[in-house]
Amino acid sequence: MEICWNLTHCCPFSCKICMVNPINVSDDNKLAVQSKLQKSGMCLTFDDKTRILKDIASNFDKIKIDFAGGDPLLFKENLEIIEMASNYFGPENIEVSTTGYCIEEGMLDSLVGRISKLDFTLDTVFPKMESARGDRYSQININAIKLSIKKGMPVTVSTVLKKDNMNKENLKEISEFLIANKVSNWFLLRFRPLGRGVNHKSLEPSEEEYKKALDYCFSLKQKDGPKIGIHHTFYELMGIMSRNESCKVGSKLTILSDGTVISCCWAFNDRGRPLNDMFVLGKLPETKFREILNSKKLEEIKKIPACRVDYFVNKRDVMSH
Ligand code: SF4
Ligand code: SF4
Predict the structure, then answer these.
(1) Exposed e or buried b for every residue in 75-105, given b needs 16+ CB within 10 A?
(2) pTM of the prediction?
């Protein structure tokens, strides 16, 4: 069991393909926006987050948590939550998925040794090609990746493969950047028309295009280069195991910024809310974590032998498989 926890609904970027549809903030308004979201119940308060952590810790001595957002590092209170989680579960079990926006030496000093790694997204090293995320995004992340490595922070770089970035020139440049900067892990992700991506279906590659891009990325692998990981929905395409066998539903629970817990980290609609009630397991801290773990809905969704998200994206009838 793993947890992905979206610690905030605020982000300094406005990616067109974002799954969680956060509110765009600047340094000037982020505290006011966060406070408004907390008052309206759209974001957990610091006290709620502390209660949830204690609740999780009462169920597990060790559990892997990936803190994400929005951008979780926008707020000092989230650093305190990350530190508490590190004390509960050990730095080796804590990861942070972030943008490079808040990464500077002081931030890294407070994170090195407290977490196992930072995960940045880099879809291109050519800012002009960054149509889905805005032209500052890749440069800010490139600078943050370099600084993080320099400060001794392990880094994973994730690339979302989509029609606008999976040409050989771009993939080769990303690979060379990772090798040159000694990034240890490169994780290749699938684009799916979920979250805001619902409105950008034309970016979705065919299975054949994905296969070609993945084969090409593996052909770039070098002995001292990053280890290449692929999203579980690529396992079938790469002949590793069937989509049904690779499904991780229920094994990585996602806590949304308002405390809602869903069983699949991809099950988002265009408003960044759960794709369907079948994925919703409860709402923390009101629901106890133990109740979520023992819920009938979790048991039921695990029984469906196919990708549950496909049912909504491709209208595949997973129930009758
Ligand atoms: S994809 Fe990430 S960086 Fe982009 S808007 Fe969403 S949370 Fe922010
Ligand atoms: S339901 Fe689909 S997207 Fe979700 S974990 Fe299973 S295979 Fe992955």
Answers:
(1) bebbbebbbebbebbebebbbbbbbbbbbee
(2) 0.95
